[in-house]
């Protein structure tokens, strides 16, 4: 049997990962950029973006707010393809417009934090719980978990009684509340791993993990490292997004005929790490 030959190993080939905070404000761009810079491979290039929107919420806790971001997310996915970005992360645990962005992303791999976190947890435990901010989120997140085929692994969803804007306001309170609900998920619900159910719950997983004694998945870390790995595999093995069957994108001729994507790309703030 012939030994397969592969291109240069992925760690020698720089990849570019674009992280999109899908709100029209730069509030979380700098702290997330710092986090990604701390965990990336030395050769990985990182862009952290937020949207250019005339008016924007600070969170996507409501479906109405989330829906307003779909068009700019899809436009940025297309822009990522045109600028040879290897992977794009949609930085909200709802995985907003994930399927829509993937359809038009060319060779750019598009990653959702919820899906990535579930995939990581599935490698570490049979049952996991998700720590959400408010009860409001649970129905929509159940829909995502069902779509990803992980409903049977879900032990519970535990609510912190906190909104997105509160997580980074009082770190001691947030940490204490996460630990309390994570402990209850393990002891009462049978969870063997914990997923933090919001990207703005970043920065807490290590202490919670030490206190609870089970894997605690930070969706920012999970999504970024899955994206970075996928980008490397794309470069080395040619594993780009499929473009046949249900993955077929609209044709460039039709896009041009309809006059789509002619306006400026809706990138607001940008940080290169």
Question: How far is the first residue's CA from the last residue's CA?
Answer: 44 Å
> What is the number of helices?
10
Low-confidence residue ranges:
none
Counting helices, strands and paired strands, the structural category is alpha/beta
Task: Please tell me the overall pLDDT.
Answer: 95
Which term fits the overall shape?
A: globular
**Beta strand count:** 9
Tell me what you see in this structure:
The mean pLDDT is 95. The chain has helices at residues 29-39, 63-67, 70-82, 98-103, 113-122, 138-147, 171-189, 205-212, 219-237, 252-258; strands at 16-21, 45-51, 87-90, 109-111, 128-132, 154-159, 193-196, 216-217, 267-272. It is α/β, with parallel strands linked by helices and 273 residues long. It has 10 helices and 9 strands. 40% of the residues lie in helices and 16% in strands. Helix 7 (171-189) packs parallel to helix 8 (205-212).
List keywords for this structure.
single chain, 273 residues, alpha/beta, four-stranded parallel β-sheet, 10 helices, 9 strands, 16% strand, globular
Would you kindly provide a brief summary of this structure?
By secondary structure, the protein is an alpha/beta fold. Helices cover 40% and strands 16% of the residues. Helix 6 links the parallel strand 5 and strand 6.
């Amino acid at each position: 049997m012939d030994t397969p030959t592969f291109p240069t190993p992925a760690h020698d080939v720089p990849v570019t990962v674009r992280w999109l905070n899908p709100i029209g404000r730069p509030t979380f761009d700098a702290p997330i950029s710092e986090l990604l810079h701390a965990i990336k491979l030395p050769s990985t290039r990182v862009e952290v973006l937020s949207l250019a929107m005339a008016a924007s919420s600070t969170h996507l806790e409501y479906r109405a707010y989330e829906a307003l971001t779909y068009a700019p997310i899809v436009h940025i996915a297309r822009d990522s393809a045109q600028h040879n970005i290897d992977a794009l992360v949609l930085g909200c645990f709802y995985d907003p417009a994930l399927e829509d962005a993937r359809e038009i992303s060319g060779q750019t791999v598009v990653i959702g934090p919820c899906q990535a976190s579930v995939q990581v947890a599935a490698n570490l435990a049979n049952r996991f719980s998700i720590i959400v901010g408010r009860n409001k989120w649970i129905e929509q997140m159940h829909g995502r978990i069902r779509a990803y085929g992980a409903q049977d692994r879900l032990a519970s969803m535990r609510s912190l009684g906190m909104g997105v804007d509160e997580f980074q306001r009082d770190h001691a309170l947030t940490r204490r509340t996460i630990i309390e609900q994570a402990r209850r998920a393990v002891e009462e619900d049978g969870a063997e791993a914990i997923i933090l159910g919001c990207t703005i719950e970043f920065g807490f997983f290590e202490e919670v993990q030490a206190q609870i004694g089970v894997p605690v998945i930070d969706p920012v870390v999970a999504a970024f490292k899955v994206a970075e790995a996928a980008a490397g595999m794309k470069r080395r093995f040619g594993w780009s997004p499929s473009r046949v069957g249900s993955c077929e994108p609209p044709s460039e001729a039709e896009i041009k005929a309809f006059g789509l994507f002619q306006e400026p790309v809706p990138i607001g703030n940008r940080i290169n790490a």
